[in-house]
Specification:
The structure is a single chain. By secondary structure, the protein is of the alpha/beta class. The chain has a domain of 123 residues: 3-Layer(aba) Sandwich (Rossmann fold), CATH 3.40.50. It contains 5 helices and 5 strands; from the N terminus they run H-H-E-H-E-H-H-E-E-E. Helix 3 links the parallel strand 1 and strand 2. Helix 2 packs parallel to helix 3 and helix 4 packs across helix 5.
Length: 211
């Protein structure tokens, strides 16, 4: 074989083996029974979904108890009209596009519980924008009244505000560490100032490779 042809062919083969596989991607559609992929560097679906399910389950469970108590006292128990303000991330990680997923999942589960009447998140965003109020200012009486009035003008009155917050704690151990995730739900009665708090925790261990 001509030496130049051999060298050319060998170079193509080496280039293909070294770089060809880097551009290859494969995907698999997961069934409902398939487990979520476990993220190796931060929290993923395997973390957020169980946290949401547990926290919302505890909140709706408490609501069932309240309904049973009020019914036993002969008092009517209607749906609680909830204004879900959104998720605040105070953890050590950026949650990226999971923020929208978390908010949608919480809102969907509460709507399906038949014990809560949820205001659309689009109305909530519009109300905050129209009143020029940040979520952390809603505990200031004047700002809360402004926001409530704005929502009433949109025909979206409510009696409760719901806040979600994500926090984390990290325990280091040489080349591995544990991160404890906490999802808290605070439901505040705007008429009385009383609040209901429920939360869920999940622990996850990470390992750093030396190679």
């Amino acid at each position: 074989m001509d030496r130049r042809i051999f060298l050319h062919t060998s170079s193509i083969a080496l280039f293909s083996s070294a770089f060809g596989c880097r551009g290859t991607r494969k995907a698999t559609v997961l069934d409902a029974t398939d487990a979520d992929t476990i993220a190796s560097h931060e929290a993923g679906a395997e973390t957020w979904k169980p946290l949401i399910d547990e926290a919302v389950g505890r909140l709706t469970g408490r609501q069932v108890q309240e309904i049973q108590q009020t019914s036993a006292m002969g008092m009517p128990a209607g749906k609680k009209r909830i204004c879900f303000i959104g998720v605040e991330n105070k953890s050590a990680e950026e949650i990226g596009d999971f923020k929208e997923q978390i908010e949608e999942h919480i809102e969907t589960l509460l709507s399906q519980s038949e014990m809560f009447s949820m205001i659309s998140g689009r109305y909530v965003e519009a109300g905050l924008r129209e009143s020029r109020i940040r979520a952390d200012e809603l505990f200031i009486p004047n700002y809360q009244q402004m926001f409530t009035a704005t929502m009433q003008k949109m025909n979206q009155p409510f009696d409760y505000m719901l806040f979600a917050k994500i926090t984390s704690g990290t325990t280091q151990d040489n080349h591995k560490y544990q991160r404890d995730y906490l999802l808290s739900l605070d439901m505040v009665d705007i008429n009385t100032g009383e609040f209901t708090k429920e939360s869920a925790t999940l622990r996850k261990k990470y390992r750093r490779s030396l190679i």
